[in-house]
Amino acid sequence: MKNNSLEDLLKATSHVSKGPAAAFGRVHSSGVPAWDARLPGGGWPAGLLWVYRPVAGLGEMRLFLPLCAQRSAAGRHVVLLDPPWTPYPPAWAAAGVRLERLHWLQPPDEAGVRWALDALVRCPACGVLGCWPRRGPPPAALLQRLQQAGAAQGAVVLWFTDRKRPPPGFKPSLHLALWRDAAGRLWLAGRSRRGTVLPACPWPEAEAGP
What we know:
Elements: H1 6-12, E1 27-28, H2 33-36, E2 44-45, E3 47-52, H3 65-73, E4 77-81, H4 89-94, E5 102-105, H5 110-121, E6 126-131, H6 140-153, E7 156-161, E8 174-180, E9 186-192, E10 197-202
Parallel strand pairs: 3-7, 3-8, 4-5, 4-6, 6-7
Antiparallel strand pairs: 1-2, 8-9, 9-10
């Protein structure tokens, strides 16, 4: 895993050919067949996923570890932009993520975060971009740029937030809500960009890999 600057990351990945969007795939398996069967298209869609959770630390990143493993194995990079915790490399490696393609970035301010988002989502080498916004509601125009660029590149932008709904006028590829019940099970529900409803159901963690 690398804790490097955005400039270093973009230089290191500049040799990756862009190619057609179809080469990246528009939908990526969740790693859990039972959940793929529920998702429109059979997996996590490219573009922006609005991931609402009332508090951080529900284990929300675990849902996407198989995705990160798949994309890193395919030669794409996984970027964690300003997460609220320090990544633990052995856990990511145990989940199958190639550590040489896992990057942790901490821009110094909000302007740096937004510049990094715009640059990374257009980078053809970026397969998964996780973002944890902390400062106010995101502009709909920024989210729309991320949605369009991610969909065009076949990349998945994970927007983890404590805001239940996106701003007016913006529709993510997938709008998810996560919570844990009294027994500690993680539940998911959501709606796709085209309006397909995903009924609430528990995440089958026993099938989710390491």
